[in-house]
Structure formats: C-alpha cells, structure tokens
Amino acid sequence: MTINPKFAINERRELLLAQRRSAIRPQWFGALEAVLNPGSLDVCPAYSAPDTIRRVEQGGLAAALLVADDESIDPLSLLRIIRSIDAVLPCCLVTTEATKAMLQSAFLLNAMSVVTHAASVDEMTLVLHRLITPGSG
C-alpha cells in the first residue's frame, strides 16, 4: 500500500484518537507508543463526537484514528463532518460494522483504512505506521 502524497504530515504533530474512554483496547496504547517515536507525534484524545469535531476544527492534526463507538453519532456521519472541515486529514476508521456498503462509503469519504475492533495489536501497529508515515507501504 502506498499513501497518497496529499496526505503528507508536514509540520503537524498530533494524532487524534477519537474514542470513548472505556472502549478502546488497552493494548493499542502500547502499539501507539511503539509506532510513534518519542517527540514525533503526541496522542490527542477526544472522548466524544463533539470533542472530535472541535479538535478537527482547531486544525494542526497529522492524522485521526476514529474508533466507532460513540452511540450519539454513526461513524460515517462523523467522517462526513470531518471531511466538511478538513478534506485531506488522514483518517482510519475502527469499527465493528465492516460491511461492504460501509467500507465503500468510508473509502468514498477518503478514509485511508478501515479496521475491525478485532484487529490484533500487530495489525493495528501496521495501520498506525501507514497512517502517520507518508509514502510507507
């Protein structure tokens, strides 16, 4: 997989992690630390859809990891809102609803990848590395 050059991180220094406080698999935090070199990117948490939207509006994000577990908004609607604010922010959607229709809609909304909640730490590490490293494959 090659990442489109329009997703270049440039000087942005934060990875937005949008998820409910209790929902994400704890071992992913270790994967984040393994992927992110110290001092290269900071993890910026957002614990609700409104927090996520506000943080995207503030700008300066390198990428966003969207864990689809907010019951107040479906993940594709959140991705649509993000795209209306920032059309090129690299986004990875983590969901349990990886149906064909959902995948097609996510990729039409320019999601870089879609991962199921059942992804292993190794798979998540690979996805995160591809998300934050332009030109990696």
Q: Would you give the CATH topology?
A: Rossmann fold
How confident overall, as mean pLDDT?
Answer: 76
Write the element-wise H/E pattern from the N-terminal end onward: EHEHEHEHEH
Give the C-alpha Rg. Answer: 13 Å
Helix/strand class: alpha/beta
Note the main sheet.
5 strands, parallel
Instruction: Output the CATH class name.
Output: Alpha Beta
Q: Which regions are unreliable across 5 or more consecutive residues at pLDDT < 50?
A: 1-10
Question: What are the salient characteristics of this protein?
Answer:
137 residues; alpha/beta; Rossmann fold; 5 helices; 5 strands; globular; disordered N terminus
Report on the structure:
With 137 residues, this protein is α/β, with parallel strands linked by helices. It has a single domain (13-132), classed as Response regulator (Rossmann fold), CATH 3.40.50. 37% of the residues lie in helices and 19% in strands. It is built from five helices and five strands, in the order βαβαβαβαβα. It has helices at 27-35, 49-58, 75-85, 100-108, 121-132; strands at 14-18, 42-46, 61-67, 91-95, 113-116. It has a five-stranded parallel sheet, sandwiched between helices. Helix 4 links the parallel strand 4 and strand 5. Helix 1 runs parallel beside helix 5. Mean pLDDT is 76; it is low at 1-10.
List the helices and strands and how they pair.
Blueprint: E1 14-18, H1 27-35, E2 42-46, H2 49-58, E3 61-67, H3 75-85, E4 91-95, H4 100-108, E5 113-116, H5 121-132
Parallel strand pairs: 1-2, 1-3, 3-4, 4-5
Please provide a brief summary of the model.
By secondary structure, the chain is of the alpha/beta class.
